[in-house]
Amino acid sequence: MRGIQLSLNQTQRLRLQRALELLETLSSKASLNASVTVADNIPVNYEDGVLKGHGTTELDGEVVATVCGVVERVNKLVYVRALRARYKPEIGDIIVGRVIEVAPKRWRLEINFIQDAVLMLSSMTLPDGVQRRRTAVDELNMRSIFEENDVVCAEVRGFQHDGSLHLQARSQKYGKLERGQLLTIPPYLVKRRKQHFHHLEQYGVDLIIGCNGFIWVGERVEAKDDMVVDDHVNKSEQHSSKSRNWTSLEEQEQTYTPAETRQNICRIANAIRVLSTLGFNVTLDVIMETVYLSSSLNVEIHEMLGAEFCVLVAESEAERRSSSAKRKG
Amino acid sequence: MGSVKRKSVEDPSEEFTSPLKQQRDNGFAGVDEPVACVHDVSYPEGYVPRSSNRDSAQEDSKAPKEFPFALDPFQLEAIKCLDTGESVMVSAHTSAGKTVVALYAIAMSLRNKQRVIYTSPIKALSNQKYREFKEEFSDVGLMTGDVTIDPNASCLVMTTEIWRSMQYKGSEVIREVAWIIFDEVHYMRDRERGVVWEESIVMAPKKSRFVFLSATVPNAKEFADWVAKVHRQPCHIVYTDYRPTPLQHYLFPSGGDGLYLVVDERGKFREDSFQKALNALVPASEGDRKRENGKWQKGLVGKAGEESDIFKMVKMIIQRQYDPVILFSFSKRECEFLAMQYYLVSDIDTSYSHNIQVSNMLPLLKRGIETFSIGLNMPAKTVVFTNVRKFDGDKFRWLSSGEYIQMSGRAGRRGIDERGVCILMVDEKLEPSTAKMMVKGSADCLNSAFHLSYNMLLNQMRSEEGDPENLLRNSFYQFQSDRAIPDLEKQAKHLEEERDSMLIEEEDSLENYYCLLQQFKSLKKDVRDIVLSPRYCLPFFQPGRLVSIQCTGDDDNAPYFSIEDRVTWGVIINFERVKGLSEDIIVLNGSYIVYYPDDANKKPEDANYTVDVLTRCSVRRDQVGRKTVKIVPLKEPGEPIVLSVPISQIDSLSSVRLVISKDLLPLEARENTLKKVSEVLSRFAKEGMPLLDPEEDMKTISGHFQVQSSSYRKAVRRIEALENLFEKHEIAKSPLIEQKLKVLHKKKELTAKIKSIKRAMRSSTVLAFKDELKARKRVLRRLGYASSDDVVELKGKVACEISSADELTLTELMFNGVLKEIEVEEMISLLSCLVWQEKLQDAQKPRDELELLFTQLQDTARRVAKVQLECKVQIDVENFVSSFRPDIMEAVYAWAKGSKFYEIMEISQVFEGSLIRAIRRLEEVLQQLIQAAKSIGETELEAKLEDAVSKIKRDIVFAASLYL
């Protein structure tokens, strides 16, 4: 219970404390033993070779942790998984970021990493799926795709030779995110999954849990069929840019989001906020659980961030985990 | 608009005639063959061909490229497809001018400011094309494993492997590429690498268009249908058989001294001259050839001082001015030898100088065939095949007609030679029918060689939308097997009808009889197997003993349906152990000549011993001069011949022995011996030949027989019982029993066939490889490469990086810290085991330290293999373990220590080319490991690997070469 910033009354504080203690007892003992702080020795067997991975270094012939975290071992490899670290990109991660600069042939994105990420114009699937041509006009039109402060979803492509982090948008489902909320939570609360894009049908909402701790909750956008047979290979450049403006105008007319959807977006977003305050892992299941809990208890959206609901969530989570632990045991 | 070329395209009547005329004017007026091509289109399901108004807009712009020469119809046809912006597959012979289509596609893309990718199967070809394109377009880049030049260029030349990994990594090129040119796409049938093409084509961006250039494949339409289906776009097929320089095929019989034209430049097969060539073969029996395995080159290469066949021929070629010449040899050892020989010759005879360049290069070719069979530009006037047997990974096989077509296509330089010459050296091992098929046959089908790999799986799982199942569903393999279903259904239906139309009277009782007969036969066989197992009967194979042997039936496939076996008698001359030889061969063996029939259906259990038996045989030569020898009853006409028969063909041993003459070479001696046999037979005609009684006579000598005697007695008793049953059987007296049984037998065979077809149908309806995919995913989970919900874990990320060696074994090796604790040189040496797969016969063992490391590798490999086996992946554990070879460890160790190349060549007994290839591949592996070390954050190992790269990457091994 690391200083959760909430104004709790006496009973709420007790209840929360009890729930968190329960959760602590439920978490595996092994990881407790393996946790280290900076400069702690990590016991290894030197007889056979040791591979020192991330978060470790050798000091006076001993393997020493360079971060606070949990020691993980894969065969002979020893590395320390940091507990509360900044986001560290890995190839293939789905991330959400915000455009902070439009530069020649590239956008710079803030993604909660130690440096800004680069999204090259060439790494970008154009919004209407048109095949890109390498012309100067294209570069001049970059702002028609993303502008400063746009929220963008992309995939980590990898580090270039110069150490910069490159992103890519492989298909239509990546790109600009509109009509929704961007949440920022500590990145270590997001676990890598097979799926990071979620479509919550009953709410008409898209949920993108970015590995970097940026979470997008927005109105459902139908992915355009990028398999249209009639493509635009022979369309002239001017024509295609015109059509882009046209469609964006058209879209603006349709930008009205129904109130119900807006409420849903807010409810889901608040659920995530609560989880993040409590320091729980943010996964689709837990989010949905929290949303159900709030709606079944008829908690208003704005009340969700209150102390009472927070404690309720902690209790229900503790109960859920202990029951599942019992089932396993 | 306005160019000559465009006009001809618009006018279809002119299109086929004008270039044809042009062609005729260029030379050989005698060629009457139409140069036309076949054009076809595959549309995806539900595709509506769009109106052509946009095309007309396109027409306004100038053609992107004009060629200084008149184009062939197939080129025009293909270019027309490109102009309409649709994919095209061009299937034509090597050197027919497919490159023109590629050039046009590149020019078009560059004009439209779009990117274009050209991929080819090998680095050599990529390098060559890069230079060609660079000269032509300038905005060209190259990406192979070795070099990257200007990766931002609009036209990128690369190997298909690089293209695949770019797609996995999501390179930006993918989003900009308008046209992808796959050269030599028939490589897709390659057992090892073919799958790369399938992956690349399936994963290619949906917006792009394709140009497939391929050798002539009969099922080009099928391929196009697949592309159309997977990419939902029309795909054109342009197919032509046309050769710009016609080919003449000659045979050169070994031992002979002349060339025989068997296929002329019009593609006509000359039967008479084919026969003549075969008759000119110098029969080996007249030579002093000894029966030794793999020594056939003796005849080819010749003894020191004597002129070999090849030598003779090359001389002839030069005399007739058929040079320059390419020699294809499928044995590396031979390549080396030939190269050496020419080297020596060149000192003496300057007229050979132009050969030196060609032959010198040969040892550097690991897979000379592949390198040449693709469009590498190295034409010659003449192509010579010294031998047409090729080692195919696990066994020798004949060159297929498709490969032959590919390689012979090298002959004849366009615009220089009037015709190409292709010479096939034949020896008597080559079946005339095989030779005929090879020269006359059609091209190989393009069949999928799809298979799964862990690297592929992990890469697919890692990317968000990657789904291995999707890849499987869209694979050409799946497409082909889906397509085969209606065909199979038809077949099954047809067979069922045939079966049902067979009506047999009294079928039930007949079937009963049939079963009895089968039982009887199998029992008899059991008895014979016991009695005639080498352990018991070898002591009785004394010279002079009379044996009854089974006659060779007229038709080997038709089983006979009587209780009596067709047997005859002969005299044992000798018996011997054989060493797995399976050629038709005649050997002079001291005092007599033995004829060894090439018996394809020799069973493994008789591979051990054969018995030389003198008996009556009919010898017939078929029209192509091939001898067939059949054992016939003594009374029938035939020659007395000493024949080597497997023990299984012996029916029984008699207790009679004859005195035979010492010298059986003269015909009379053999004839006399056989006469004696007949006399003996007639003497015992009434009471039957006295046979060796297995229990009485044979047990005295071998006490072992007791062990099996009980089962022997049981079998004998049952045979007697069965014999009684036969006599009493109601149907046994039926006059047409034999024919009826034959019909029944046929019916049974049909039923079995239907069953197997149905099984094949069932297996192709389900997703191909589905079970294997599941099993492999299980392996990945078990080894901790992926989590239970298919998220790739740390180990999996490492394995993703490794594509040039076995990814699982190497990853395990790395995570077990093996690479970390050893010296750099030792590490390099250890890794060499992962890239070296050739088996050396008598490789010396590496020194102890290296040997120890190798054992560690083997342990790791065994563990990996065992896990796979437990997860139900089909794998032979020991085979897998022994696929890692320690043979070049010492040499690579020395190389890493800084030895000179000639010094390491002395250490190992391998060929330069193979070793260079291995070291280059080793460097690839090291580069991949560097990436892997980076991703786990192990900086020391990374530095060590970098050091390793710098240690091996030097001198001749990494000199740029066209041939590697």
List the helices and strands and how they pair.
The complex is a heterodimer of chains A (329) and B (964).
Chain A: H1 10-26, H2 29-33, E1 35-36, E2 51-52, E3 56-59, E4 62-65, E5 69-74, E6 77-82, E7 94-103, E8 106-110, E9 117-124, H3 136-140, H4 142-145, E10 151-159, E11 165-169, E12 175-177, E13 180-184, E14 197-200, E15 205-209, E16 214-219, H5 237-253, H6 259-278, H7 284-296, H8 307-328
Parallel strand pairs in A: 2-6, 9-11
Antiparallel strand pairs in A: 1-5, 3-4, 5-6, 7-8, 7-10, 8-9, 10-11, 10-12, 13-16, 14-15, 15-16
Chain B: H1 4-10, H2 12-26, E1 38-42, H3 53-60, H4 73-83, E2 87-91, H5 99-111, E3 115-120, H6 123-137, E4 140-143, E5 148-149, E6 155-159, H7 160-169, H8 173-176, E7 177-182, H9 194-203, E8 209-214, H10 220-231, E9 235-239, E10 247-253, E11 260-263, H11 271-279, H12 297-301, H13 309-319, E12 325-328, H14 332-348, H15 353-361, H16 368-373, E13 382-385, E14 389-391, E15 396-398, H17 401-408, E16 420-426, H18 432-440, H19 454-462, H20 468-474, H21 476-501, H22 507-531, H23 534-537, E17 545-550, E18 567-577, E19 585-589, E20 592-596, E21 609-621, E22 627-631, E23 639-646, E24 650-657, H24 667-683, H25 705-728, H26 737-765, H27 770-782, H28 794-801, H29 807-815, H30 818-821, H31 824-835, H32 848-870, H33 877-881, H34 889-896, H35 901-907, H36 912-936, H37 939-952
Parallel strand pairs in B: 2-8, 2-9, 3-6, 3-7, 4-6, 7-8, 10-16, 12-13, 13-16
Antiparallel strand pairs in B: 1-9, 4-5, 10-11, 14-15, 17-18, 17-24, 18-21, 19-20, 21-22, 21-23
Helix pairs in contact in B: 4-5, 7-9, 14-15, 17-18, 19-28, 21-26, 22-25, 22-26, 28-29, 28-36, 29-32, 31-32, 31-34, 31-36, 31-37, 34-35, 36-37
